Amino acid sequence: MDESWRLLEQLVQEVNQQTEQLRKMQEKVGELSATATSKDGMVTVTVGPRGEVRTIDFDPRVYRKLSPSELSAVIVEQIGRATSEVSAGMKELMEPFVPNLPFEDLFGEGTDFASFLPQPSTPEPRDPRP
């Protein structure tokens, strides 16, 4: 094998390794969640990696202590806190891979990170004859 072929193989191997690292990072992103609890402990909210609400738990006393509008405000506040926490975790996972791209551009509505990833490949030897 000539030197240029070895270099090409090395480059393809590096791309494949980086792609695998990105796939693992994406799995970690998919597992992210955050939970926020109000100061009084009456409301606890858990959100997933895209800020989707997974659970809302109430202390049984919440209905006696908070009016409907107060309860609504506390729920919205906890969703915001949990979403900010999960977003910070996602940004931390992503920054090493996309240092020059604004984080928000990658995770806008409907963005599919997998579409950014190349598929692994293996170079095939070429025929040295002209």
Question: How would you characterize the overall build of this protein?
Answer:
By secondary structure, this protein is mainly alpha-helical. Helices cover 49% and strands 12% of the residues. It has four helices and three strands; from the N terminus they run H-E-E-E-H-H-H. It has helices spanning 3-31, 62-65, 68-94, 103-106; strands spanning 34-37, 43-47, 53-58. It has a three-stranded antiparallel sheet. The model has no long low-confidence stretch (mean pLDDT 83).
Shape: rod-shaped
Strand order of the largest sheet: 1-2-3
The share of residues in extended strands comes to 5-15%
- Tell me the helix content: 40-55%
Strand runs, count: 3
**SSE sequence, one letter per element:** HEEEHHH
Task: Please give the alpha-carbon distance between the first and last residues.
Answer: 16 Å
Number of helices: 4
* Low-pLDDT windows of residues: none
What's the gyration radius in Å? Answer: 23 Å
Name the average pLDDT. 83
| Structural category | mainly alpha
Q: Biggest sheet, in brief?
A: 3 strands, antiparallel
Q: What's this entry about, in short?
A:
With 130 residues, the protein is mainly alpha-helical. Helices cover 49% and strands 12% of the residues. The chain has helices spanning 3-31, 62-65, 68-94, 103-106; strands at 34-37, 43-47, 53-58.
